[in-house]
Amino acid sequence: MSTALASPPTTVRAQPMGSALSGRQLAAALPSALRGMSPRALWDSPVLFVVEVGAAFTTVLAVAEPSRFAWAITAWLWLTVLCATLAEAVAEGRGKAQAASLRATLRETTARRRSPGGETVQVPSSTLVVGDVVLVSAGETIPGDGDVVEGVASVDESAITGESAPVIRESGGDRSAVTGGTVVLSDEIVVRITAPAGQTFVDRMIALVEGSERQRTPNEVALNVLLTSLTIVFLLAVVTLQPFASYSGAAQSLVVLVALLVCLIPTTIGALLSAIGIAGMDRLVRRNVLAMSGRAVEAAGDVDVLLLDKTGTITFGNRQAAELLPAAGVDAAELADGAQLSSMADETPEGRSVLVLVKERFGLRERADGELVGAELVPFTARTRMSGVDLSDRRVRKGATSAVTTWVLTSGGVVGADVGATVDAISASGGTPLVVAEQRGQAPARVLGVIHLKDVVKDGMRERFDALRAMGIRTVMVTGDNPLTARAIAAEAGVDDVLAEATPEDKLALIRREQEGGRLVAMCGDGTNDAPALAQADVGVAMNTGTSAAKEAGNMVDLDSNPTKVIEVVEIGKQLLITRGALTTFSVANDVAKYFAILPAMFAVAIPQLSVLNVMRLHSPESAILSAVVFNALVIVGLLPLALRGVRYTPSSASALLRRNLLLYGLGGVIAPFVGIKLIDLLVTLVGII
Amino acid sequence: MSAVQVLTAVAQVLIVVAVLAATHRPLGDHVARVLSSPRHLRLERAGYRLMRVDPDADQRWSTYLLSLLGFSLASVLLLFGLARLQDRLPLDVGAPSMDPAGAWNVAVSFVTNTNWQWYSGETAAGHLLQMTGLTVQNFVSAAVGIAVMAALARGFARSGERGRVGNFWSDLVRSTVRVLLPLAVLAAIALIAGGVIQNLHAHTDVTTLTGGTQAALGGPVASQEAIKELGTNGGGFFNANSAHPFENPTPWTNVLEVVLLLLVPFALPRTFGVLVGDKRQGTAIAATMGGLWATSVALLTWAEMAGPGLVPQAAGGAMEGKEVRFGEAASALFAASTTGTSTGAVNAMHDSLTAPGGGAALVNMLLGEVAPGGVGSGVYGMVVLAIVAVFLAGLMVGRTPEYLGKKLARPEITLVALSVLTMPAVVLVGGALAITLPAGLAGIQEPGAHGLSEVMYALASAGNNNGSAFGGLSTGTPFYETLLGMAMLIGRFVPIALVLALAGRLASARRVPATAGTLPTHTPVFVGLLVTVTLVVVGLTFVPVLSLGPVVESLS
């Protein structure tokens, strides 16, 4: 697991993970839900539109020929429409709070614009245009998105990322992008504005979390076509049923036919479709990832190839001491002691890792300052390429093989063949050897052994890659290392492939190659030279710390700047699609039980034989039909939490997922309404509505 | 029913299954080779020159469709002309000119591979019409089905081909010349050996056992019988169809005919699998079809042999309307197979099947003729349903829907949805019209639920291009001739047009490689899913109507 996952709560994810719906959430969404009931708003969703037309129709019928039954059905049909619009409103409502806190950062500020002449003018931040150059000092809010062109400053970006620790922004390089609304804490920077007011990163974030710019994703559109065609089929079936029923002497009341139609058309998925999409985006936002389009989230589910940077994603990013290999005739403890002494002056991460290793493996605790009397530390320099310590009668050195070898030979000592062999073996495995040697008194120096430094793979990466493989996703490690080192690390981490000595062009070429084979590629990146690859990738996650070019090119931005996040993005994409599929299957499977409730109710009076189909033993025809309609409405609200939360998802193969979900949502969808309708029937009869 | 009857019933099913198991691979592979071979036979070249077409042009789907429609229109006009003018042409054996509505119905019926017959073959169709018109259509209408399937398979197999799906003329001619013709010759010889007649005799007076005389018509029966079954056409030479002793003289020819009508439909999934480059996919399609067919055979056999109902109980079996040479089991097997394929030949009167048996036959057709369906049309119908299944449940593996390496987005699902909509629209609207309008009600023989079943059966038969008649309903009226003609036309060509458009879209799309994350469409789980989707989608559409017809009858 990446560390960023455990990062402190942020403003963006301030809302609790609402697994259960609170009454307050529903109440807050009600006004928007009522607005959503206008026919114009429902026109885009034919399933719901048909329900609303049906409800209007039965209202007219109930007014014309009032009966308890007609009014009950009418009321529940309107409630069905309301449940549907409520689902979408609740999903949207969850983004509203986030948008409000973001909006606070957009307040008007005064910018100090530097004119071409060199003098600075005070202007309102909203008048800034692309290309303007502004000065921002400590304590001031950065007036707009831009790149630092001069200076370096620490910036508080917590308004956007929720991360309270300040970040460094400096001109040039990959840390030059600043976001409007963030605050400079120290120093002064000169920023060139790259986005006009109203189109800044924060503006886009607000639009995204509010869902105001939400467009239907391709799969959502396609699914809607299928749902519409199912609606048409059922419309045909119900409309033509009346002539057949009349012929059979069992003509139906129009209220009953409308009820039948509404129960058959896929209202459940029709009502929850938007909510599922909005909630999917929301889940990304909660993990501090902003997807610029819903299309990208869907594409994430389809990803076949994952390009992962080695450094920071797969490995910790620096070499660490992994083992101590004593020279012939040297005790391991002796080597450990020498390694520790020689590393005392070494403040590099590699040096620290040696101290950690000897402490863990040999129980050698770190020696306190002053513990070694008369010790003189020899720090590492680029010239000597060695570090060490001089004690009264003993000198210890640690460093690059050639440097230490020279030091030993100069003192008249010899370097054994076994040491050479060990060094070669470590190099061949992609590691870095550090030789440790000591000189006691005036005797010739001797080699104690070799420290094996290597890139350490993060815990749990192998399991993650195994899981990805099970999902059919191939991982490619991208690194600037030489092929030998790269392959060694790849083998240890369990990735499928490596791109060694990779240049940005290589990366782009690899993505193009994979895409030509019909595969979808996801990657993350931060530098300007990553921009073409980010743009080419189907899912490109840009790090928030990266350049504005990279952020423009990607279709997602990770506010935590955690490169491992791309794996989670893929999982969220899959979960979104699975949720959609599960509820579709559930919705269609529900119809079986509804037939068993409604058909005998419709025809049993005229054709008594058909009452054997009343397997649920529902009380009366009216109670049966009403129960089916009530179930149909309540199931929307009942499944809303699932739609918002997403179905449980454990990475596994497609076969396993299909088996599990078919059983759960297919078979479950057949059985659940039998139970639900029967219970509602009991209740309806008990209360005496019918 | 006795143990011997049960054993016979099981044995003949096993024979059919064994033959199909042995033939579906080699035959399927052969058809695939024929469809993808670069060579033309000399005979075929002559045909292309005669029709002035280029057999090597790789057609876009729209051109392919226009060729198909043009060919079919020409065929309709030719048949219409033959039927109207047969009394003035040779070999008419006394058959009169058909009236315009009847001629239109016959023409459409045979061109759409339906072979709905409002007329009695022996009195209304002369030998010339039978041989040069109807039998020819029996070949080419089946070949059209194979052609559409081939185009769809190419759509899946190709990548970035800008909608090019092959050549209609070469698919049509090759399917006829290299597949159906040789099979028909072999089948005809086998049928003649089994006692089916083959001559050009007009009516012969024979003295019956009771001493009376009967005018028995001869004719080129075996040759027509062979392709009638092989091409899942079903139009009998005689009115009694395969219950007529000249068409189907013995229990052995009966089994042979069942084999013949299942032979090609069960081999074509293999062809499809080979053409799309993954034989397992063909096996899955065949398994789905086989499962549905076997269920229907079992249900029908049980219904006819156990005979629910008062009369069958008393008689020890539902023998009404059955040919005594065959008995209930052989009739049930035939009925399940003829309605499961879009053949529509009958060896028993389906009107007299028991209520659940008749219901099963009706459901077989309402499935959209996919169990195993007509020649070619069964496979493309099943592929369309597979796409629906992938769309409904495929998202549950966490990827956007894809089938056989092609992503399914809005354009694809729109075409598929319209194709799935067509048949229910035709059957339900047509049925509602027939049951409401006086002209429709006039044709109903029995009142009540059975009358409803008669009407639904006729519409289902026409809309699905099956062609079997339930009987009871008088359809030789302008109303039914026109209505059923429309149903046959729409039921055949609208899905064909949509499937070809789909093939074009797919051919243009890039192929996506399969990974462990791809929805597996060759596993038993998927087969189960496909069977369920087929039953549920169809079931949900037709259950209300069925519950008023066969279900009420069964429960009475």
Automatic annotation (TrEMBL), chain A:
Pfam families: E1-E2_ATPase, Hydrolase. It comes from Cellulomonas edaphi. Its EC number is 7.2.2.6. The system is composed of three essential subunits: KdpA, KdpB and KdpC. InterPro entries: ATPase_P-typ_cyto_dom_N, ATPase_P-typ_P_site, ATPase_P-typ_TM_dom_sf, ATPase_P-typ_transduc_dom_A_sf, ATPase_P-type_domA, HAD-like_sf, HAD_sf, P-type_ATPase_bsu_IA. Residues 107-210 form the P-type ATPase A domain. The chain crosses the membrane at residues 41-63, 69-91, 221-242, 254-278, 592-612, 624-644, 664-689. Keywords: ATP-binding, Cell membrane, Ion transport, Magnesium, Membrane, Metal-binding, Nucleotide-binding, Phosphoprotein, Potassium, Potassium transport, Translocase, Transmembrane, Transmembrane helix, Transport. This is Potassium-transporting ATPase ATP-binding subunit. The gene is kdpB. PANTHER family: POTASSIUM-TRANSPORTING ATPASE ATP-BINDING SUBUNIT (PTHR43743:SF1). It catalyses: K(+)(out) + ATP + H2O = K(+)(in) + ADP + phosphate + H(+). It is an enzyme of class 7 (translocase). SUPFAM superfamilies: Calcium ATPase, transduction domain A, Calcium ATPase, transmembrane domain M, HAD-like, Metal cation-transporting ATPase, ATP-binding domain N. It is a multi-pass membrane protein. Belongs to the cation transport ATPase (P-type) (TC 3.A.3) family. Type IA subfamily. Part of the high-affinity ATP-driven potassium transport (or Kdp) system, which catalyzes the hydrolysis of ATP coupled with the electrogenic transport of potassium into the cytoplasm. This subunit is responsible for energy coupling to the transport system and for the release of the potassium ions to the cytoplasm. The active site is at 309 (4-aspartylphosphate intermediate). ATP binds at residues 346, 350, 380-387, 398. HAMAP family: KdpB (MF_00285).
